[in-house]
Every structure is written in C-alpha cells, then in structure tokens.
C-alpha cells in the first residue's frame, strides 16, 4: 500500500479492520452456507478492500473524522464493498441478503469498531483501544452520534468478540 507523505503508518488500522472482518465473516459463518475455504478468501479480500478504502481516510489523531466514509452499511441496499468481495467467492446479491441482516451498520473508526443491527438496535462495541494521547470528542457530532439523535431510550453498550 502506498502512503501519502506525512501519513501515519497504515499498520495502525489493522486491529480495527481485523475486528470488522471477523464480525462480517462470523455473520456469514453462522448460517453454514459458506465453506471455511470461501470464508478464508472472503476475509482476506475484505481485509485488503477495507485497507485500500480507508488508507486516505484514517485519522488516529481525529478518530471521528471520516467516520461516515468508513461506515459499512446495509439498509435494504447492500454495501458495495461487501457485495464486491462476496462476488469473489461466488455469493450473489440475493444470497448475501439471505445471509446478512437487512439492517446493519458497522462503524470502523480508529480505536473503536462498533455495530448496530436494525434501525433501533443497541450499539455494540466489537473492539476498543485507548489512543496514545487522549482524544476529545466533546462537542463532536459523529456519524454514530447523529444516528443516536432522537432515540427515546439510551442504547446499551456490549462487547462481543468473534473468533475465527
């Protein structure tokens, strides 16, 4: 992967990408319709696709900057990165709609990966790390926080791990 001059090393996004890939792969695995070999290919291709997609939109010093760009979204319309990678293992769009939730939001940000299934579902944390220096989000209206506006009840945060 090429880097811009002055850009932080891209290795800093690997844990977040691994958490996102593990989560999506785990969703495909639970249905039992995808072989382990297909899942390995899917996981590798999704890791590469996300690293490429995020490489100029990853700001550890400002983790919420670019959050909307890095958001993986299925809202009765398949996320283009997921559909492209799935086609590499022979999964069609109708098959993907059967295997994945019809409403899924996956936020992949520096130091945190979280998801929500359904429009009113709770936001659950998949991965969380502390920044090298404190990052203040006071007053920041992030993509995830915008989606929380207007909720009648606070969401519960859960930590879920997906092992492969």
Automatic annotation (TrEMBL):
Where does the Anti-proliferative protein domain start and stop, copy by copy?
54-74, 100-119
Q: Which domain of life is it from?
A: Eukaryota
For this record, an example GO cellular component is: nucleus
Per the record, a Pfam family? BTG
Q: What Gene Ontology biological process does one annotation of this record name?
A: negative regulation of cell population proliferation
- Fetch the InterPro entries from UniProt: Anti_prolifrtn, BTG, BTG-like_sf
Family to which the UniProt record says this protein belongs? Belongs to the BTG family.
PANTHER family cross-referenced by the UniProt entry: B-CELL TRANSLOCATION GENE (PTHR22978), PROTEIN BTG2 (PTHR22978:SF29)
According to UniProt, the name of this protein is BTG2 protein
Please give the organism: Odontophorus gujanensis (marbled wood quail)
State the organism's lineage: Eukaryota, Metazoa, Chordata, Craniata, Vertebrata
């Amino acid at each position: 992967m090429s880097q811009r001059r002055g850009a932080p090393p891209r290795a800093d996004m690997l844990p977040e990408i691994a958490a996102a890939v593990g989560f999506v792969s785990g969703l495909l695995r639970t249905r039992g319709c995808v072989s382990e070999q297909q899942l390995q290919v899917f996981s590798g291709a999704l890791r590469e696709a996300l690293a490429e997609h995020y490489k100029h939109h990853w700001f550890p010093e400002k983790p919420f900057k670019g959050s909307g760009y890095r958001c993986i979204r299925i809202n009765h319309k398949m996320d283009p990165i997921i559909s492209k990678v799935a086609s590499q293992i022979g999964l069609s769009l109708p098959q993907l709609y059967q295997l994945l939730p019809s409403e899924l939001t996956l936020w992949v940000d520096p130091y945190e990966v979280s998801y929500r299934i359904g429009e009113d579902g709770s936001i659950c944390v998949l991965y969380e790390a502390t920044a090298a220096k404190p990052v203040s989000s006071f007053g920041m209206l992030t993509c995830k926080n915008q989606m929380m506006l207007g909720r009648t009840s606070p969401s519960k945060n859960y930590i879920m791990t997906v092992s492969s």
